[in-house]
Amino acid sequence: MTTNCSFTEVDRLMKSLELAIYVPIFVCGLVLNILALVVFCFLLRKWTESTIYMTNLALLDLLLLLLLPFKMHATIHHWEAHHRFLCSFLESLYFVGMYGSIYTIACIAMDRWVAIRHPFRAKQLRSRRAALGICILVWVVVLGGTSPIYSFRTAGNGSFHCFHGFSEKGWRPDVISCLLGFGFVGPALVLVVCSAQSIRTLRQSGKESHKNRACVRIIYSSLCAFLVPFTPSHLGILLQFLTRKPLVEKKRRARINESLQELRVLLADTDLQLKMENAEVLEMTVKRVECIIQSRAQEVDTMNREASERFAAGYIQCMHEVHTFVSNCPGIDVTIAAELLNHLLECMPLNDEDKFQVMIQDIMTDCSTNSNSTWPSSEGIYAALVSPGGKSISSGSSSALSPAPSTTSSDDLCSDLEETDSEQNHISVDAEKQDVLNMPTVAYSESMWRPW
């Protein structure tokens, strides 16, 4: 939405509202203020401080009302250029009547507060001369404060709307701040504070008389008479100032411009862009290296597991061959055979006990079906290995390990052992070479017994 479009809509709406509000205000206000002046000037025999203030207020209100027809005419019609000074004079009188009424109402509230809150000092502070001097001071202040209005109209030959379309001088932030601060907010605070203190004093006096209740109603009436007409008008001035001076929009655009400026600097900075690219490359490299390390670790684990399984299978097979040989070889000492078997059992890998137990059972069962040996069964061997009491076969079971009595001599036994060893060595050399070629390199402890 453009600025011109928004001003057109606001001006059209304000013209309609002004015509709808000013006509009843002019008629009713003119009649009531004339009656008030007649009462104060001719019917009241004694002039008091309150009478002086009320007469001054009625005069200022009447001045303000007499200018409303000019303002309603200027709302609909354009004025010629030679009426520019007359327009400025009428505008000055309009603001004199408005802010003179505001200051007079504030003075009435202060005078009432002094009379109620400090009744003994009021006799010294309040007087008809002081009230008349304050009223004259109000006229001087508002006439001097509205004098800059004559400079708010720019010289020109074209027609214009009086009471509307001030130049940019009239909408400067300092002018609007003084107008709202000293012309409305300050007197409003004085009125509210003095009225609240007066009402509190009347209610705390403990006398709920008809006179006190009437005073409270008068104070509330003065508050309403001030806040109801003047608050919307000054709020409209503030909104129109914000419309003409879009501070919020300027701040929003400033933030957008700052963001775009920072983005431009980032895009134009080659060093920063190079650093960002290097950081991205480094991050991708780290992720790639982590993936490679994880995959290699998984491969190594798989190879180690497969090598362990092959090692265990070969170990069990060697135990089977030793078991078969010792069982079929007569004349072997029982103690030596038991120590040999205990050594093999102690060196057995136990990474996967259940799997190795199954392998031992299969091999030892196969062995027991092919021979009539008196060696322990596979369950006994495994139980002796994993039992917490010890890792060797007890001497009490030596009778179970005793082989059949031998009838051969020790020389024959030695010769048979040598022949068997030579045959086994010859056969195991080729198998060892083939296994070494096929098995991946796995690091084992030097004290571990290796079947090859």
UniProtKB/TrEMBL annotation:
<dbReference type="InterPro" id="IPR003650">
    <property type="entry name" value="Orange_dom"/>
</dbReference>
<comment type="similarity">
    <text>Belongs to the G-protein coupled receptor 1 family.</text>
</comment>
<dbReference type="GO" id="GO:1990837">
    <property type="term" value="F:sequence-specific double-stranded DNA binding"/>
</dbReference>
<keyword id="KW-0472">Membrane</keyword>
<keyword id="KW-0675">Receptor</keyword>
<feature type="transmembrane region" description="Helical">
    <location>
        <begin position="51"/>
        <end position="72"/>
    </location>
</feature>
<feature type="transmembrane region" description="Helical">
    <location>
        <begin position="171"/>
        <end position="194"/>
    </location>
</feature>
<dbReference type="GO" id="GO:0005634">
    <property type="term" value="C:nucleus"/>
</dbReference>
<keyword id="KW-0812">Transmembrane</keyword>
<keyword id="KW-0297">G-protein coupled receptor</keyword>
<keyword id="KW-0804">Transcription</keyword>
<dbReference type="GO" id="GO:0030154">
    <property type="term" value="P:cell differentiation"/>
</dbReference>
<dbReference type="InterPro" id="IPR017452">
    <property type="entry name" value="GPCR_Rhodpsn_7TM"/>
</dbReference>
<dbReference type="GO" id="GO:0046983">
    <property type="term" value="F:protein dimerization activity"/>
</dbReference>
<dbReference type="GO" id="GO:0004930">
    <property type="term" value="F:G protein-coupled receptor activity"/>
</dbReference>
<feature type="domain" description="Orange">
    <location>
        <begin position="311"/>
        <end position="344"/>
    </location>
</feature>
<keyword id="KW-0221">Differentiation</keyword>
<keyword id="KW-0539">Nucleus</keyword>
<keyword id="KW-1133">Transmembrane helix</keyword>
<dbReference type="InterPro" id="IPR000276">
    <property type="entry name" value="GPCR_Rhodpsn"/>
</dbReference>
<dbReference type="InterPro" id="IPR036638">
    <property type="entry name" value="HLH_DNA-bd_sf"/>
</dbReference>
<feature type="compositionally biased region" description="Low complexity">
    <location>
        <begin position="394"/>
        <end position="412"/>
    </location>
</feature>
<keyword id="KW-0217">Developmental protein</keyword>
<keyword id="KW-0678">Repressor</keyword>
<dbReference type="InterPro" id="IPR011598">
    <property type="entry name" value="bHLH_dom"/>
</dbReference>
<comment type="function">
    <text>Does not bind DNA itself but suppresses both HES1-mediated N box-dependent transcriptional repression and binding of HES1 to E box sequences. Also suppresses HES1-mediated inhibition of the heterodimer formed by ASCL1/MASH1 and TCF3/E47, allowing ASCL1 and TCF3 to up-regulate transcription in its presence. Promotes cell differentiation.</text>
</comment>
<dbReference type="GO" id="GO:0005886">
    <property type="term" value="C:plasma membrane"/>
</dbReference>
<feature type="transmembrane region" description="Helical">
    <location>
        <begin position="215"/>
        <end position="242"/>
    </location>
</feature>
<dbReference type="GO" id="GO:0035025">
    <property type="term" value="P:positive regulation of Rho protein signal transduction"/>
</dbReference>
<comment type="subunit">
    <text>Transcription repression requires formation of a complex with a corepressor protein of the Groucho/TLE family. Interacts with HES1.</text>
</comment>
<protein>
    <recommendedName>
        <fullName>Transcription cofactor HES-6</fullName>
    </recommendedName>
</protein>
<feature type="transmembrane region" description="Helical">
    <location>
        <begin position="92"/>
        <end position="110"/>
    </location>
</feature>
<feature type="transmembrane region" description="Helical">
    <location>
        <begin position="130"/>
        <end position="151"/>
    </location>
</feature>
<feature type="region of interest" description="Disordered">
    <location>
        <begin position="394"/>
        <end position="426"/>
    </location>
</feature>
<feature type="domain" description="G-protein coupled receptors family 1 profile">
    <location>
        <begin position="32"/>
        <end position="242"/>
    </location>
</feature>
<feature type="transmembrane region" description="Helical">
    <location>
        <begin position="20"/>
        <end position="44"/>
    </location>
</feature>
<dbReference type="Pfam" id="PF00001">
    <property type="entry name" value="7tm_1"/>
</dbReference>
<dbReference type="GO" id="GO:0006355">
    <property type="term" value="P:regulation of DNA-templated transcription"/>
</dbReference>
<keyword id="KW-0807">Transducer</keyword>
<keyword id="KW-0805">Transcription regulation</keyword>
<feature type="compositionally biased region" description="Acidic residues">
    <location>
        <begin position="413"/>
        <end position="422"/>
    </location>
</feature>
<dbReference type="GO" id="GO:0007200">
    <property type="term" value="P:phospholipase C-activating G protein-coupled receptor signaling pathway"/>
</dbReference>
